[in-house]
């Protein structure tokens, strides 16, 4: 007798078979997952991890109870593991308040020899862990870093003011190290020559410590280096000539040290360099022509080197067509601003303030398509500042030309008014020109003298208008920062004079 199944029953049978199939797949997946997380971890590796962490966070931390399977189902925040030959090993250790559940350091935190027993460690990061340089100072462990020479690729000690002393010379044995960051710590002493042995290094950041002495010439042999930042230390002496060998370097920041001497011509070999910051040093000898070879430069900062001196005209600035930031403030520069600087079409910031530059600023500076900050203040510039009023309006205080006693402006009339000058657009601290094209004589007044500017006698010159200027020892400005000089202010002044005459 044949059995027949109705449509509802067939649907139920299919649904049951599908459910069994999914359950089987889920079970196999769970078995695979359990098999993976159940991979063994050498007991010696596990104990070394627990003891190394205890050295930083305190002996109260019982890793074996809290995290019995640190590379499996009970992971530790800040610890990463990798499989080697079927067993788990620690590959990264991050100490410090980076994440919400990160391992935070105890007051008596320190290095232990167990750290160097993590035989497959590639990354070590200690952030904001050693905080007291006086009560609990800590030195970088003098244990043999050579034990990690075949694995360690990245070392970062950041924001540890209580981390003091010198860089141990044994760090030079880390032949696979690609990144060494010692930033904002309390480290002191000279830079060890052994840093030159880190042949795989791509990033070396030693900023914001108290390092002293000269920069080791051996650093010039790090042919793979991309970033070198030794800023904000007390380094002295000249730049090593060997730096010319750093042809792959992208960023060189040696600012805020006590470096002296002239710029080495070998810097011109750094054709891939995009940032050069040597500001805040004692460099002398002027700008060298060889910087024209640094054709990839986007930012060049030489500010606050008052002994640099020299002139701008010796450089063919058109070769640096990618330049976006150029800061040469307070460098003792002399001579004129060359026209070639007006060809830097990507320039966003130009700082030439507090020098001894002379001559008239090239009008084409105002036509630079990307310029957003231009500082010419504190020089000996002369003549007429022939920039359009719209430029001053756009830039505001991001344009500086004050403290140039012989520099003046002569603005055209605004399109909306044929009878008033564009006083609101006048550059801060720059006097209007006299009829002869020089700065108004009242700009040299000292004391509380009252002077009324000449009123144009029937002149229909677009560059002239009625002006009144009050001098009481410093230039008078309106509450909005604009310079007095509109016809409305003149009218008020004349009405006041008339009233005085009437009452007298």
From TrEMBL:
The gene is LOC115743767. GO terms for biological process: response to other organism. SUPFAM superfamilies: L domain-like. GO terms for cellular component: plasma membrane. It is a single-pass type I membrane protein. It is found in: Membrane. Its main location: membrane. This is Piriformospora indica-insensitive protein 2-like. InterPro entries: Leu-rich_rpt, LRR_dom_sf. Transmembrane segments: none annotated. Residues 413-446 are annotated as: Disordered. Keywords: Glycoprotein, Leucine-rich repeat, Membrane, Receptor, Repeat, Signal, Transmembrane, Transmembrane helix. Pfam families: LRR_1 (PF00560), LRR_8 (PF13855). Residues 1-29 form the signal peptide.
């Amino acid at each position: 007798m044949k059995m027949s199944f109705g449509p509802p029953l067939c649907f139920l049978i299919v649904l049951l078979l599908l459910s069994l199939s999914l359950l089987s797949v889920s079970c196999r997946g769970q078995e695979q997952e359990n098999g993976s997380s159940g991979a063994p971890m050498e007991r010696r590796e596990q104990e070394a991890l627990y003891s190394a962490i205890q050295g930083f966070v305190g002996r109260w931390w019982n890793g074996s109870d809290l995290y019995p399977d640190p590379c499996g189902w009970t992971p530790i925040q800040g610890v990463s593991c990798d499989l080697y030959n079927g067993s788990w090993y620690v590959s990264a250790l991050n100490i410090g308040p980076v994440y919400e559940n990160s391992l935070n350091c105890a007051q008596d935190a320190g290095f232990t020899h167990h750290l160097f027993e993590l035989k497959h460690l590639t990354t070590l990061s200690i952030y904001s862990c050693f905080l007291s340089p006086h009560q609990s100072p800590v030195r970088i462990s003098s244990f043999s870093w050579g034990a990690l020479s075949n694995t360690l690729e990245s070392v970062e000690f950041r924001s540890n003011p209580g981390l003091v002393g010198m860089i141990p010379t044994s760090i030079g044995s880390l032949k696979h190290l690609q990144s060494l960051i010692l930033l904002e710590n309390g480290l002191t002493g000279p830079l060890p020559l052994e840093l030159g042995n880190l042949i795989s290094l791509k990033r070396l950041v030693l900023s914001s410590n108290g390092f002293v002495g000269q920069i080791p010439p051996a650093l010039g042999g790090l042919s793979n280096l991309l970033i070198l930042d030794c800023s904000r230390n007390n380094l002295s002496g000249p730049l090593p000539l060997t730096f010319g060998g750093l042809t792959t370097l992208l960023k060189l920041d040696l600012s805020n040290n006590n470096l002296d001497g002239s710029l080495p011509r070998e810097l011109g070999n750094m054709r891939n360099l995009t940032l050069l910051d040597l500001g805040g040093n004692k460099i002398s000898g002027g700008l060298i022509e060889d910087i024209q070879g640094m054709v990839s430069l986007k930012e060049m900062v030489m500010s606050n080197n008052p002994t640099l001196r020299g002139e701008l005209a010796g450089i063919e600035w058109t070769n640096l067509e990618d330049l976006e930031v150029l800061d040469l403030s307070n460098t003792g520069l002399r001579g004129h601003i060359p026209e070639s600087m007006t060809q830097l079409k990507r320039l966003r910031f130009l700082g030439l303030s507090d020098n001894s530059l002379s001559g008239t600023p090239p009008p084409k500076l105002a036509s630079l398509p990307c310029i957003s900050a231009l500082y010419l203040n504190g020089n000996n510039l002369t003549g007429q500042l022939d920039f359009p009023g719209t430029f001053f309006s756009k830039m505001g205080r991001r344009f500086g030309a004050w403290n140039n006693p012989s520099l003046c402006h002569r603005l055209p009339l605004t399109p909306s008014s044929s009878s008033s000058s564009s006083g609101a657009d006048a550059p801060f601290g720059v006097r209007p020109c006299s009829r002869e094209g020089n700065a108004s004589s009242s700009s040299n007044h000292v004391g509380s003298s009252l002077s009324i500017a000449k009123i144009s006698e029937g002149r229909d010159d677009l560059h002239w208008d009625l002006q009144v200027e009050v001098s009481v020892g410093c230039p008078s400005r309106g509450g909005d920062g604009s310079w007095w000089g509109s016809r409305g202010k003149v009218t008020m002044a004349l009405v006041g004079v008339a009233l005085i005459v009437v009452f007298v």
